């Protein structure tokens, strides 16, 4: 019953979207104007009803629904039953549709844009929606009825039962599905030749919102990987991570270009290009993940007919957008105000760097596919490729970040150049000293230097701004700088946690104390505990420094009865300076294998990201 | 000139899409990883029957007939999903020998499973330690193999079978 309501809601959202299209082309009659807007609201309401129906089916463990049967289990905690709704292909595609229409509906309340521009944008968004809705109905219907009568479901992957992972997909989708609206804004702006100040402001706000959400989503995913997978790492250059990173980078370039666009009119065409690129990369990513072409930790149940459907969608949407872009975008007669070093040139370098990085990652991600088609051999491209290509490419961009916000539009001068010079020299000296007293590694040196320069440069600019403008409207003047400090902090975290991390493999008896580095670890006890739906083998480790107890950590292994899966739960002790990350291994002659990683400053990564997201939201709220 | 530069992205997209289409149409499915065993001789094994400890079946007993080998266990949920399909196959191909290998399972659970859900297998062998599974390169349950009359492995599928896979891929091999 509830599945039926859900399916009807899905159908109605489609019908209302078609009615948006029809009423758009009959604008001369007054009635259609009303129908147009009511259809926008009603389509959003119907898809919400449909989504709620699916959530209810998951909450009630209604195994007569095939998606619920495949992906849920009655013994799951409530939170994960709900999160299970979007933890599978069908449900997540429904979430995709929900987000498209909610964006459409919220956008329809916009008061600043030209009416015709607004309506055309809604038309494009609804048309894209219809394509995706057809995809869901024909290849990924979440409301299929289960053909056999069962009283228990199959889905109980304990690894996925985690709060961070429950909100990771919705955030990610709010980001990259949202790019569809940016694409529609660009297409209608180009078609009507109305890319003006209002357009730029609206697009900038939407892009900032989507990009911030995407940033948060990616960060949550990596945080989950860090504490759940027990490999001590947090980014694996997994194909699915790459496909979320590509629209993120393109979105970053877009955000920067939009912020500059009010002063540099020539960028309009480039902005249109970037917004097409953003959503194209989003669909492309979806294609790679859902077609089952790539195997990764994120693999969904795959089906090549889905793949072909999305690939055709990708070709239609991207092809149409680019063709419109080629024939309709106007050439501007003004020249870019490019100087050796001014804001415009910094922006151009930033954009070039990001696009090249994006293409490099794209190449690495699809290279195995091309090779397999051509030579029938299976290869894999992993972290070494990405680390040695994408990172060096991004370096000049990072370097520019420290001073770019302080540069001028018109001339080559960097105001208070002396202060910057002194800051940079002292930061370089500091880095040399640190490397001297720890150990030298080329990546460590570059990473530290970059982060110090970015943070110090931005703080200096904030200081100069504050002496000039006072502390009123502090966020207005310094918002971009806060984001840049976030990047600096993130680089510091990445560098320290990867270059300066140490790994110890120990074999320890009960009540034995073993030294590692400046610390020691003692196995106090190891117990088997019976829990609701799993059995846990829990170690009680005590980490000491100079005979003083620092902390007790509990790495453990869990055995889930229903799914017969064993998971490792890491035990982490955090202090300001580093994480002690412990993993419990197996037993051998009463000796337990444990692994201890010390990850210095690793939490700065997520703190830096948080600053970026914060700055993204401030960017939307601040008055221009 | 300008238009040509602007159309570069379209060309890149087209080229990439062509590769992807070819890839999809070749159906390079990750559920069918290239098995080193494909077109190789059946590995040697000897299996005690689940129902009678005195009976054993060895790899020599399955030559001269087409054999379908299915690795399963009572604790494996996807195995339960594909289970009814073997009855269908059995009904359609009376001469087919279906060998079930119960892997890393207790005899009690396995017998209970086959009594409640029915037993479509001609012979059920016990592989308690999963050693026969290792010989076959089994990496997850269920896995299904087809062995031809010459004792060669001609097909392997990873994951639960579906009607479509049986129709499109397995039945042509059984003719």
Would you kindly provide a written description of the structure presented here, covering whatever features stand out?
The complex is a heterodimer of chains A (624) and B (175). Chain A has helices at residues 2-24, 30-59, 66-71, 78-84, 89-107, 115-139, 163-176, 179-192, 197-228, 239-261, 267-290, 304-328, 343-375, 383-401, 417-437, 442-469, 474-499, 603-621; strands at residues 502-508, 513-516, 519-530, 534-545, 548-553, 556-560, 565-569, 571-574, 578-588, 591-600. Chain A is an alpha+beta fold and 624 residues long. The radius of gyration of chain A is 27 Å and the shape is globular. The relative contact order of chain A is 0.07. Chain B has 175 residues and is an alpha/beta fold. Chain B has one domain: 3-Layer(aba) Sandwich (Glutaredoxin), CATH 3.40.30.10. Helices cover 39% and strands 21% of the residues of chain B. A seven-stranded mixed beta sheet of chain B has the order 2-1-5-4-3-6-7. The mean pLDDT of chain B is 81. The chains are: A alpha+beta (624), B alpha/beta (175).
Q: List how many beta strands of chain B DSSP finds.
A: 7
Quaternary arrangement of the chains shown? heterodimer
Output the radius of gyration of chain A. 27 Å
Largest interface: A-B, 33 and 28 residues
Percent of residues in beta strands of chain B: 15-25%
Record the SSE blueprint.
The complex is a heterodimer of chains A (about 625) and B (about 180).
Chain A: H1 2-24, H2 30-59, H3 66-71, H4 78-84, H5 89-107, H6 115-139, H7 163-176, H8 179-192, H9 197-228, H10 239-261, H11 267-290, H12 304-328, H13 343-375, H14 383-401, H15 417-437, H16 442-469, H17 474-499, E1 502-508, E2 513-516, E3 519-530, E4 534-545, E5 548-553, E6 556-560, E7 565-569, E8 571-574, E9 578-588, E10 591-600, H18 603-621
Antiparallel strand pairs in A: 1-10, 2-3, 3-4, 4-5, 4-6, 6-7, 8-9, 9-10
Helix pairs in contact in A: 1-2, 1-6, 2-4, 2-5, 4-7, 5-6, 5-7, 6-8, 6-12, 7-9, 8-9, 8-11, 8-12, 9-10, 9-18, 10-11, 10-13, 11-12, 13-14, 14-16, 15-16, 16-17, 17-18
Chain B: H1 2-6, H2 8-25, E1 46-49, E2 56-58, E3 67-72, H3 77-92, E4 97-103, H4 107-117, E5 123-127, H5 131-136, E6 143-147, E7 153-158, H6 163-174
Parallel strand pairs in B: 3-4, 4-5
Antiparallel strand pairs in B: 1-2, 1-5, 3-6, 6-7
